[in-house]
Amino acid sequence: MSKQLTIYDTTLRDGTQAENFNLSVEDKIRVSLKLDQLGIDFIEGGWPGANPASTKYFEEIRNYELKHALISAFGSTRLFANPADADANLQALIAAKTPAITIFGKSWDVHVHAALRIELEDNLLIIEDSLSYLRPHVRHLFYDAEHFFDGFKLNREYALATLERAIRGGAEMLVLCDTNGGTLPTEVHDILAEVKKFIKQGKHPVEIGIHAHNDSETAVANSLLAISLGATQVQGTINGYGERCGNANLTSIMPALALKMGYTFHAANNLSKLSETSRYINELANLPHNRYQPYVGASAFAHKGGIHVSAVKRNPLTYEHIDPELVGNVRRILISDQSGRSNVLHKAKKFGIDLDSKDPVVTAILKELKSLENQGFQFEGAEASFELLMRRALGAQRKYFTLLGFRVINQKSDIDQPPQAEATIRLEVGGEMVHTAALGDGPVNALDNALRKALTSFYPSLSEMWLDDYRVRVLASDHGTGARVRVLIESRDRESEWGTVGVSHDILEASWQALVDSITYKLMKDERKK
Length: 530
Known about the structure:
- By secondary structure, this protein is an alpha/beta fold.
- Helix content is 39%, strand content 20%.
- It contains 17 helices and 16 strands.
- The radius of gyration is 27 Å and the shape is globular.
């Protein structure tokens, strides 16, 4: 019988401590919704009260009805100088009104003396007292035993004593943290055995979790080993983001647990969304996707030349440890006339396009795709643009309007005032010429406003669509201001959301490409409903 686990994601808290990994409150909401779709059990939203953005997140997320995931607020044990009912940190955790709360406490005597500057017994007191105070206010209460492995190795008795106080305080889960990331799998086995033995001697049943960091490149291994030894919760981040070398990578841990070790958890039913989720979060953070990442990387199931290609064509198991579709990835054969063909057919099926593998149009689509990718286009976060590309190749895509020309002026007339942007646009719609202008907050916004102004009288449904996100990435910085840029636009209406992409040396041209695709996709989508 397989064992039920809980997956605890801390991308929004521990993940955002990674260098160059930043998310706005709006981005954090988007990530939460995406993780909920994946089936993550607990989403750690951050430290309420730590900063205005964290507080706002917990206020905003209450406006959304998650299908499965539970939000957890994170904080520390109370200050020794404060009683629990007067401690600002504990009050902020309760005020966040989350179904779960996770607090951390010191397990390592060195930290008790050096960081908290209190006596060892005082630390035990605040662990139990903090948890006891929080217990009546929350459905799920987790205790993160910070630096537990280092503390255990230097003072076994004290590290275990901190766990005993956490149990007394009412924690339902003791999460053992390898905070410095220096523990090796050979050490995890013996330490977990001691912890299980210690807990078994007590009167109150409690579960064990694992929270590993990757400073020794063993976070995934330590997490999998801990689960195999009886831990029932694993904490980590999408793509392994985290402070220093990162956290345990859930995009590697989850498929290993489900597909190789026989464990069950809610997200195990949705692993086909894993690659999409991985790329989505990278795009939100405006970071490049690691193509060599296991399971979800673009190269994870890529085969190049010689005997590998020949063998994989006969039987993929010869050089693939799992079927890539199980994690939402695709097989790629890099040097062959079949290169990428399966990807095109896979997408066609997803978009409801009937394509035969021998149809010459598949080759035409593939040729254009390669050409665009060489220019810097990427379609992982812009599937609407890719669907339009395919439909154009089939001659099945209606042209809703034709550009005759546009001009954008960005004028700064006062040193103390921001520039003023104005866009003028000329279009042909159904044989009728349209000439209009609009102002905007910046040249791209002005162009977007002018385009909508010109089209809304012909296509009223555009008034129900809005741009949700706009991102620019420089593709080759060695060219300086002459570098190509890639613009990704995320749009939505009341029913769905979609992404489009544009690439050019000119940021306005790249933005125009993505804007046109966005509006065209909306009109095509509405036309299908009629």
